[in-house]
Design a protein that fits this description.
Elements: H1 17-35, H2 42-54, H3 63-79, H4 84-97, H5 104-119
């Protein structure tokens, strides 16, 4: 279990807003998932499973793969669980597209979240 860390306090440059937003969003959803305050729906689990399968060759989350996963989830994904998982994915796109916004800790944490959500797709549902 790792904590996402931002730029050091001694850094001369502020972190770009898009990177900070993606970091916060991933961190919040993962914390809620771990505490049981948020649990993915079947659709979210299935979309995460598809996204994880698309990364099997190289292990990389890419903007194109995330867009395809969001497309697969369609509009319903933006409404399930208040759209939190869809928002995490959407917030990652600009961070992954622009090398100046890229932050490996955010990408790693997002991959961990996608894996955790995907693992719920085949988990038995409590009655």
């Amino acid at each position: 279990m790792s904590t996402i860390t931002g730029p050091s306090e001694t850094s001369l440059f502020l972190e770009p807003v898009a990177t900070e937003r993606a970091r916060r969003c991933v961190e919040d959803v993962m914390a809620d998932f771990r505490s049981g305050a948020w649990y993915p729906t079947r659709l979210e689990g299935r979309v995460a499973e598809l996204l994880l399968a698309s990364t099997a060759g190289d292990g990389m989350l890419t903007p194109a793969r995330i867009r395809a996963a969001l497309w697969e989830g369609n509009l319903a994904l933006t409404h399930e669980n208040d759209g939190r998982f869809a928002q995490v994915l959407a917030d990652l796109v600009p961070v992954l597209e622009d090398p100046q916004l890229a932050a490996l800790d955010v990408v790693d944490a997002a991959g961990e979240l996608v894996g955790a959500v995907a693992s719920t797709a085949t988990a038995p549902v409590a009655a």
